[in-house]
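User: ok so my PI wants both of these folded by tonight, can you help

Assistant: No problem, let's get them done. Here's the first:
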Amino acid sequence: MPSLFKQIQAGTVWDFHGGIHPPARKTQTNQKPIATLPMPDRLYIPLRQHIGVPGQLLVQIGQRVLKGQALTSADNSMAVPVHAPTSGVVLSIAPHTSPHPSALPELTLVLAPDGLDEWRVREPLNISHCDKVQLLNRIQDSGIAGMGGAGFPTHLKSGVAQPVDYLIINAVECEPYISADDLLMQEAATTIVKGIDILCRLLSPKAVLIGIEDDKPIATAAMKAACSQREHYYVRTVPTKYPSGGEKQLIQLLTNKEVPNGRRPIDIGIVMQNVGTAFAVAQAVLDDHPLISRIVTVAGDTLSQQQNVLALLGTPVSDLLDACGFQPEHKQRIIMGGPMMGFTLPDLSVPVVKTTNCILAPTVAELPAATEEMDCIRCSACADACPASLLPQQLLWYSKARDNEKLAEYNLADCIECGACAYVCPSEIPLVQYYRVAKADIREQQREALKAEQAKARFEARNERLEREKQERLERNQQLAAARQQQQTSGAGNAVADALARIKAKQAQAAPQDEQNKAQILAERELKKQQAREYQQQKAQQQAVEEHAEQHSQTPATSNSTDSKAAAVAAAIARAQAKKAAQKPEQLIKPAQSVDEMNKPVRAAEADPRKAAIAAAIARAKAKQQAQTETETESETKTETETETETETESSAPLIAADAVNKSAVESNAASAIEDPRKAAVAAALARAKAKKQANAEPTEQTEASTTDPVVPETVVPETVVAEDPRKAAIAAAIARAKARKQADSENS
């Protein structure tokens, strides 16, 4: 048996399962030359016209662009740019109805042609001096995608790394009405062959197989003539049967090979390109002419002139129909694509794109609309017509049930959506529509599963990274600990010891300072305690004064006669004590007391005579109390033989007390000038009460003798003394306070 390659060389053509024979209806267009459309007023250029992702936008609104200028950039392997079909101004970049069965809006650039059709600078390539990378970059930068309907980026198909046995050029064009590739081969066969040469330069196949249906004799002859000088270029005619132009079906026809389920043609050493794609590759490489136009078949009985036209990409369908004499009728349908795999357009503003090969405007009688769907009668006609050997009836049930597992089990992915099953279905069931919806659901689930898998992989990678970093930190800490231990054992720990010694030295230096601070704190505590005790003594004295004042207020009438006598005695005693204390005044005055401090009570006395009088009364009371204490002490030591002397001393006591009262009045006046006047009044009352009590206790003779002595009025003496010399008064007050403290200390001891 001859080898496969020898069978191919001999012109053997095989067959595939199923298929149908609908009316071709190509004679209306394949006998006419390609027409050129007038420049449209607006061009609507979608930014994505292929399978993949759109490129990055390069222009902005209001910018003028030149013909062939790139509007987007190919920043991804699955992206190919789009170009300006002519020179003009960018009016807007906004969503517009897409040329897709869903009719969902896509981002579209609106270009207003300026009529100049001015080209950008072009740089053709010399293929004899170019490598594969340069060729692939030129193909991608020219925006070339599969023009047979799929729209797969051509540079990806042409840049495969696997070895290629056969390069198949698909020129079958099996669907009714469509004759765009037929006219292209008739008029540009030489350019197509040049494009095939470039593809062979990239793929290095063993042979090139050009498949053409047997209903295109003119095109077949033109291609054979163009390939006559090429070795291993074989033009093969195949029987007219739909869908012989399918990728897997044509491979089976020309090579008798079947593509495995879920695999690609490259897996069996085959690459397939459309004849229009080969033509675009030649233009891009040899002329630097990007893909900005294509041949479109405009057919249908509502058109007065059915023909193939060279349309700029972005031309609205309405302009194509108007150029062909469109005469719409009631319930008119406009179909983009062929009658088998095309879809109805929602409006006529949908533009021509890279995968648009036909626009149909049929009458209702010519192409009736689908009738109401009926129940399946299980005739198996769909299974007999399926070119992929599937079970359309089973796929329909599982599509309605959305059982994706069963759909995968029955190989829904192998469906090429040719529409042969729906064409032969007597129940008018739109089987292909159900399959398309099911495929969309499966793709969405696969995308979600892929995202979840990627997220899981990222999560696991993150956990591994964190665990690895944790282990690295643990190992690093262990190494550092071992190094420190080794340093300590080898005497390298001196630095730590020195640091500890410095810390201890600082603590030792800080210890005396801490002791001083503690001593200071203790001294402050003692001072506060002393002040508290003095405050308590003053409070007790004040309470005693208030009690005596109450007693004195009860007997005011009896105390008037004895006040002057008691005051005289107290004044005399005070003068005697003052003379005695004057001998050592420097020992009685506090060193810390300044002249200004001593003058404060004097100034206060000068400012308010009333306060001075009250202070004098308080001083008299204190002097009287002190004299009484001294008298009691002396009386205990006196003998009976000294009675006369004691009498004389007592008789002279009023004069001494008077002087003491005068001085003590000045002293107390200066000392208490800053005190509360109310307290001073209470203290004066208390002093008068005590003087009265002492006067009542003395003998009658002494009282009479003392009444004859002159006594200075209480309010006159302090004012006179203060007016004569305030400084002396302050000194006298200080002396009196010192003496009082000394007396108190002697009593306590």
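One down. Here's the second:
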Amino acid sequence: MTKGSNVALTALSEDVGSVIVSLGWVSPTGEGDADVSVLLLDTNGKVRSDADFYFYNNPVAADGSVQLLGKTPTEDGNEDRISFDLTAVPPEVDRIVVAASRYGEARFGELDALQVRLADAAGESLLRFAIDDAGEVSAIIFGEVYRRGEEWKFRAVGQGYDTGLAGLATDFGVDIDDDAAEPEPEPESEFGSPGEECGAPGEEEARSTAQAPAGASSGQPDPTVPAAVPATLEAVPAPRRPDTAETEPTRQPAVRASRPRTAKKKVALPKVTRTSLAENDSWRPARLFPVSALKSDRERETRATSVLLAVMAQVPRFGRRLTAAFGAPSGRMETFTEVSLPHGDTPRRPDGVIRIERAGKLWTALVETKTNGNPLKADQVQAYMDIAARRGYEAVITVSNDVALEGSPLVDVKIDRRRKHKVALWHLSWAEVAYQAQLLIRHEGVGNAARTWLLEELLQYLQHENSGCHGFQNMGSAWVPVRNGINDETLCQGDPRSLEVIESWERLIRQVCLRLGGELGQKVLPVQRARRGSDHGTRRIQLADQLCLEGRLQAELRVEQAPGVLTIGADLRTGKLRTSVEIPAPEQGYPLTWAKRLIRRLAEAPADMHVETLLEGETGGPRGTLERLRPEPADLLPKNTASPISGFRLSLFKGMGSSRGNTESGFIRSVDEAVHRFYTTVVVHLDQPAPRRAAPKEPART
């Protein structure tokens, strides 16, 4: 769902008498968390009483309509589930608000993958709403379930509150007790409190009576309670959160009286500090797929194959994502490892086998994996192609850190044209595997908590430094000689090493697209400035010659919903990376208004970002850093030219790494970080492109 949209629950399932709402998030540090809360509102948008406010110290409604089920751990954070029995909700309740809050100085902008999901009574996921623009707020309304006539509907809200849970609850009529944040009151004098002087119990007296610590009573009867019915102060256990530290108070008093209260009971908001159950920071959570025992490349390959194929079989949607592009049908999948197959005098053992059954027919693929920087072996892949052809299998799938290029296979194999049965050879990069897992976990969902956890464990394994599944991570042996040749001006056109660098650059850009797309949940594709059907080899040779002349590598990325094409350039002479985007000028308004609005939109962008005005028919216009332009946006306007403004170019510069590999100073890491920083600090603040309007149809001539 998108923000503001709504849907009738009965349109999604017939079994919505009770539903489960799940709020989820991911903490990059592994320590961040939030608390859920529920408010039942009447037709005026207010709670009927403070009893309609449910949080972890008030988790269950007496009528069973609301029940907070607690937290389910995920890979980096938690998922909080709430059960609603909609048939038991009182008729005067018009809306049910589902929210979450953080405590202290924590903000939701520090958490990733904020989402709310709703499932029916059978556990089938019906809808999902992701919040991508949480920002610096400490409370958020994720969504609400509300009545429309005789049916219930769900609305995706995503509204944040700077004032936290207190501000949110107060807006809906909950009376919040802020005493916990105030200093302790001084002891009462012998003359009593102001409420006693006027002969009537005041609100402060009622509050202090309800909250006085056990044993604090002086033994004197309460003047506000009839003598025949003395007030009873009994210490009872207070509901505790499961992760509350042992030093927190565990008991609170409860007042029992036969008369009605004269002051409205206050709801005390939780004020706790999250602590880990680990004794020290060196403890690491247990993982389904451990990596600490991996010592050799063979162990890494065996473990990676088993982990990948097992999750593909247990998470059908994930398995389907990886095999659909290879012509595999949608059906029941089984996966196997270390299968022995006859091949001449000695049997062969492919790393894995995938079999899919559909309508009584089998689709089978052999799998060969490599980890770290190990290349695929042509003779090994050739043997598997021959075995697959003889046994009637459909495909051989290779998996490695390398990225395949269009028109340039990673492994050259010979295909016997005399065989009627054809075997396809396909390749997967570990980066693509991680990309598909990210899409399902963070943006699309798989409709099952256990399957989501399996995907999260797979992603955690792939991203671990010891797994060997990090994706393309080495620019090759030609990288350093080409850089030196460009600096020394000794690199000549036609040098085969420059072509190797172009191919490595193309692989890197494809991997950058996968990583950014996985984080955004959007398609990110490289832009190929070549005619359709042109030879890829010829295009790369032309780019290699251009590299020798200019000393620059350049690529363009197209991101869905971005205002323009992202450009990434690497100048090998200066050692600088430049990420930029060109945005068109608005069709209406005045240039000064455009400039002011652009600077306002970039209020949170880096101060060292360059802004350049683009003029029609001219090579360049006024430019400057954002730091200089913020007080004077008019400096972006041309002074001595009549050329109209066609747009603006926004650029960030970064030093590029010196080494060819993905080390801390590596070129690959530098490019990845530059693109990520530019998109998350600049592009996200820009307006999305307006949808294209279809041209009006001309009336038919008669």
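The radius of gyration is 32 Å. DSSP finds 14 helices and 27 strands in the chain. Good luck tonight!
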